[in-house]
Amino acid sequence: MDSQMLIKTHAHTMLEHMPVGVALFDAQDLRLLAANTLFQTLIDTLLDPAWKNGRAIGHPISDYLPRAEETGLMTIFRTVAETGVPYRTGEWSFPAIDGDITYWSWTLDPLRDSDGHIIQLLQTASEITAHVLARQEAERVQASLSQTNRIAETDRKRLQVIETVARSIRESLDIDSISMAALKAVSTCFDPLYVYTHIANPVQKALDLLHIHPVPVENPSYSTLQHIPYGSSFPIAQAYKQHNPIIIEDLQAAPSLDTADSNHPLVMSDARGYACVPLWFGVTFEGTLTAVFKESIAADGPEVQALMGSGIHIAAALAHARLRKVVENERTRLRAVLDQLPEGILIVEAANGSISYANAAAAYILGIPVTSLIGIPLNRHPQINVVMQMNNRPIFPWNFAVIRALSGETISSQEAIVTRPNGSKVITLSSSAPLHVEDGSISGAVIVFQDVTVQKSLEQQKNEFISIASHELRTPITAIQGFAELLQVSATQEQSLNPQSLRALTFINEQSQSLTRLIEEMLDLTRIENAQLLLNLAPHDLISTIQHVIEIQATVDKNHDIQLLLEGLQDTDTLIGVFDENRIVQVLNNLISNAIKYSPAGSRIEVGLRYSPTTSHEALMWVKDSGIGIAANELPHIFKRFHRASRLDRSISGLGIGLYLVEEVVTRHHGRVWAESTEGDGSTFYVQLPVLPDRVPS
Ligand code: ADP
Q1: pLDDT at 272
Q2: Rounded to the nearest whole angstrom, what is the distance from the C-alpha of residue 644 to the centroid of ligand 1?
Q3: CA of 491: how far to CAs of 129, 483, 596, in Å?
């Protein structure tokens, strides 16, 4: 083999083993002159079966590749053949015979003769379909991944805004910090031109700007935003009317905007997206949250969702702040009222027992400044501890009253002596009551008190006066009564006086007796006041005591029919009770004299005593008349000191002390007294007294 031949053989071998398809075309008619096996295999996917397996060699491209023209392949070949400029392509698509798209990377180079004429074209080709498809798939995955990432990112931003707002609410309920936190979060996440909150002003029917972020510099729109009446055509006002968010996807293209809005400086600026969320808390409109964006926005975009999501929290915070303000105002108003009151008021908290409120009068009466009273538990103020009660009975400190009030009791009219820090003493009249919160639980207690030192000292003086006067009166009256009785006896014996003078003497005697009774009652009154009414307790027979009283009363008053009625007992029985006999006689006398006094002459008065083994530890006595009776509205008051029925015939003498003494005496015997009466139809007074069950009737 000559050397030429050898080179050809080597060249052929090399071409056959190249990893690319190589083909040679005639530059004139674009006939395929030669192709290595790889090229033939590669183009077989594009060829009709008749052209496969190298049958295309020797034929122009347009014969075996009919779509070469329409795909632009022919143009490339012709251009290279004419211009000599090589062609390179990295990714050429060509339909395979089965219709699938195939991808090729190929080159086309001109081959010249020794004169420089282009005589042939050399094509190299590799099929890269699998590679391109794989890349396309990767691109698709990448695209969908970034789409998911975008969604996740916007979701994250939306949640970040809502979470920031929610967190700021948890940290503080101050509306300023919540609003600012919301605006900053929206700004950070969505980069709006402006974001602002308005607060509803229902009195002026307008929205007042609360915050704007960032604060505009020399922006004329800023001032128009300050105060927006509900009736204005601003989208913000529309949000209130419509209840729903106003979303303008593109301000510049929004045909629905009124002229007022399209002239709005924000609209005239570059702003495009606009979202205004009305802040409703239940049925109350609290304000708006608005954001203006450089870019247009989507109605359901993350910005809008973030605004709506945080809007719910801001509305709740605004409502809370508003209600707190209402409560605060109400509290301030109430405190102003309380501070004007002449009564001292202390409020003690259930939680820690300390004083949370003291009014000016409390500070004045106690002689302790308000600031020193507040915050300190009541029992730590030694001065406020009560020295003693007025009647020298055991000490009843205020904190006891407060503890009882904290357990739900109301304690009224407690008199006490309080020592001020300067040592002076003040007599107080106080009442304590529990303070309830909405759910009914007790949150604290209130003590209301007044300084009754002056009244008390006047009362004391009056009592002293009555006491002295009564003592002074008692001596001459006893003398008058004694001498009248003496005269009466001797005159009756000696018959030295005419009947008229004798009647006068009897009258003097009776009147001085009732005067003595009155004086005794007045003395008893002062004894009670000064805690000097002492009982001389001993066992006595109640039946004989009553019988004795009736006997005396019947001899004194002959105008009434006084009858004893025993129930569950015989006149011969004994019913023993431990009592001060004189005092029980006084009780019966008072009740019977009232029955006599308030019922017509000739009427019957029933004095009863009932004893039943079922209630063996107590006996029931009653005095029943058929007199004028007591009006229903008077009934609750008749046992009060100096109380007399208002419609009483003033010619009926009395001081209104008798029943007060009756109640005091009966209560001190651990008994009970009450009355039943119908006006015009008589009264019955009942007295229940403890008796000794083991000394029951024989
Ligand atoms: P007085 O000295 O006025 O009788 P009391 O304390 O004994 O004072 O009674 C108080 C008031 O109760 C009387 O003023 C009277 O209005 C009324 N009262 C008491 N007992 C009777 C009665 N038996 N019938 C009608 N009213 C009575």
Answers
A1: 85
A2: 6
A3: 159, 12, 29
Q: What is the dihedral of CA 637, 643, 649, 652, to 10 degrees?
A: 120
Distance, CA of 71 to CA of 537 (rounded, Å): 135
Neighbours of 524 (CB within 10 A): 21
Of the candidates 125, 126, 97, 123, the residue with the CA atom closest to the CA atom of residue 108? 123
Q: Give, in order, the Cα–Cα distances in Å from 404 to each of 364, 394, 638.
A: 25, 17, 30
The top-scoring range by mean pLDDT among 44-53, 141-150, 268-277 is 44-53
CA trace torsion 223, 227, 231, 235 (10° rounding): 60
Greatest alpha-carbon span in the chain: 203
Could you give the angle at which helices 175-190 and 302-340 cross, rounded to 10 degrees?
Answer: 170
Using a 10 angstrom Cβ sphere, with 0-12 exposed, 13-18 middle and 19 or more buried, the burial of residue 627 is: buried
Q: What are phi and psi of 616, to 5 degrees?
A: -65, -15
Which pair of tokens denotes residue 2?
A: 């000559």
**CA angle (539, 543, 545) in 5-degree steps:** 70
- C-alpha distances in Å from residue 290, one per residue of 48, 237, 254, 359: 67, 11, 17, 46
Q: Name, in order, each residue with C-beta under 8 angstroms of 18's C-beta and a sequence gap of 6 or more.
A: 36, 38
More confident residue, 391 or 426: 426
pLDDT of residue 385: 57
264, pLDDT greater than 70: no
Here the tokens at position 154 are 């916007």
- Given this model, what pLDDT does residue 259 score? 39
For range 544-565, the mean pLDDT:
92
pTM listed for this prediction: 0.47
Which of 279-315 are b and which e, b meaning 16 or more Cβ less than 10 Å from the residue's Cβ? bbbeeebbbbbbbbbebbbeeebbbbbbbbbbbbbbb
- Rounded CA-CA distance 24/339 in Å is 113
Q: Is 613 exposed, middle or buried (0-12, 13-18, 19+ CB in 10 A)?
A: exposed
Q: What is the 3-state secondary structure (H, E, C) of 476-541?
A: HHHHHHHHHHHHHHHHHHHCCCCHHHHHHHHHHHHHHHHHHHHHHHHHHHHHHHCCCCCCCCEEEE
Q: Residue 158: name the closest of 287, 18, 354, 304 by CA.
A: 304
pLDDT at 549 over 90: yes
Q: What is the DSSP string of 198-246?
A: EEEETTTTEEEEEEEESPPSS-THHHHHHEEETTSSSHHHHHHHHSS-E
The Cα–Cα gap between 635 and 677 comes to: 8
What's the mean pLDDT in 395-424? 79
Return the closest-CA partner of residue 110 out of 125, 124, 120.
120
Q: Provide residues with CB under 6 Å of ligand 1.
A: 590, 594-595, 598, 625, 627-630, 638, 643-645, 648, 654-660, 683
Cβ atoms within 10 A of the Cβ of 565, count?
12
From 638, 684, 687, the mutation candidate for ligand 1 (largest count of ligand atoms within 8 A of CB) is 638
Look at residue 666 and give its three-state secondary structure: helix
- Please state the three-class secondary structure of 125-174 as a single string: EEECHHHHHHHHHHHHHHHHHHHHHHHHHHHHHHHHHHHHHHHHHHHCCC
Using the structure block, give the residue that is written with the tokens 């509803």.
Answer: 200
For atom 25 of ligand 1, the residue with the nearest CA is 629
Among 36-45, 140-149, 643-652, name the most confident range: 36-45
Phi, psi of 285, rounded to the nearest 5 degrees: -85, 120
pLDDT at 123 over 90: yes
User: Ligand 1 test: best mutation among 514, 598, 606, most atoms within 8 Å of CB?
Assistant: 598
Distance CA 439, CA 441 (A): 6
Tokens of 115: 């004169």
3-class DSSP string for 672-684: EEEEEECCCCCEE
Q: 656 CA distance to ligand 1 centroid (A)? A: 7
In this predicted structure, what is the pLDDT of residue 631? 94
Reply yes or no on whether the pLDDT at 246 is more than 80.
Answer: yes
Is residue 659 a contact partner of residue 644, using CB atoms and an 8 Å limit? no
Contact 691, 617 (CB under 8 A): yes
